[in-house]
Amino acid sequence: MSNKNNGFHHISVLFNESIDSLNIRPDGIYVDCTSGGGGHSSAIAKRLTDGRLIAIDRDPEAIETLKERLGGYECVTLVHDNFFNIRAILDNLGIDAVDGILADLGVSSHQLDEPSRGFSFHNDAPLDMRMSLEGMSAKQVVNTLSQSELQRIIFDYGEEKFAPSISRAIVRAREEKPIETTLELSEIIKLAMPAAARRDGHPARRTFQAIRIYVNGELDGLGEAAENMFDCLKEGGRVSIITFHSLEDRIIKQAFAPLAKGCTCPRNFPVCVCGNKPRARVLKAVSPSKAEIEENPRSRSAKLRTAERL
């Protein structure tokens, strides 16, 4: 599904699957943690009668778009914040628990496709990559961090095996002049890699992903945020999270696993003495269909994971 106007559009991945996973009740309370272009939020709001939707986004441009797109729904409350603060957000609204929570962890199509945001290696733009338009930018990261710290970021967050040579090339280049734009950085990365590696997808993809994750703190505290989302659910409520790469998916999988674990007694105990019961039922992970991947190649690595509170 694509939403276009005001320049802010987003192709929602696993759209129907994620909406269906919430088991929406017309009188329920729901949270869209990453409301973005409003695709998921609109679909949830349409299904509510006496219910309520809390639509959150950290991007001020998204909030302006959402005011227009969701303005016709009285049930919607917009919140400009990072969903990592979900407990505080709900407390501020006087909400104890909710029936469903959705988080789409992907960068919005608008952020990728709007050159001025500096996320993409396909267009020349100032190096920025900040989802919230606040804090340290990608330009500051590549021009100020040490070679060893850049190498760690590129290796850990991009799973890029050429991280040592790429980080050295970045430091060499910035000694001549500051690295200002996305294409400048992309070219530095490309020249730091062997010719064979350049043919395997875009050479800058992993490094750009790594710097973006670092700039936005996307993985710092993600596991804790997933646990907090679960703790905000009513009995029978569901949290559904769409991830876009193995690093995110591993964190969500590891956050959900202990919630579904029951008895922790040794296997040779004849009866349970720990009294631990599963807190969640974790549904089978869902991946995009072949047709969706063909229509939207960005969806190829996506996964939807859902946990239901028992």
Provide a count of the helices.
Answer: 14
Which term fits the overall shape?
globular
CATH fold annotation of the largest domain = Rossmann fold
SSE-based structural type: alpha/beta
Task: Summarize the amount of helix as a percent range.
Answer: 25-40%
How does CATH name the architecture of the largest domain?
Answer: 3-Layer(aba) Sandwich
Series of secondary-structure elements, N-terminal to C-terminal = HEHEHEHEHHHHHHHHEHEHE
Low-confidence segments, given as residue ranges, are: 1-7
Which strand order spans the largest sheet, edge to edge or round the barrel?
3-2-1-4-5-7-6
What does this structure look like?
The protein has 310 residues and is of the alpha/beta class. The chain has 14 helices and 7 strands. The protein has helices at residues 15-21, 39-46, 60-69, 86-92, 109-113, 138-144, 147-158, 163-176, 182-191, 195-198, 205-216, 222-231, 246-256, 290-295, and strands at 29-32, 52-57, 76-80, 98-104, 233-243, 280-282, 303-309. Strands 3-2-1-4-5-7-6 form a 7-stranded mixed β-sheet. Helix 8 (163-176) crosses helix 9 (182-191) and helix 12 (222-231) packs across helix 13. The longest helix is centred in the middle third of the chain and has 14 residues, at 163-176.
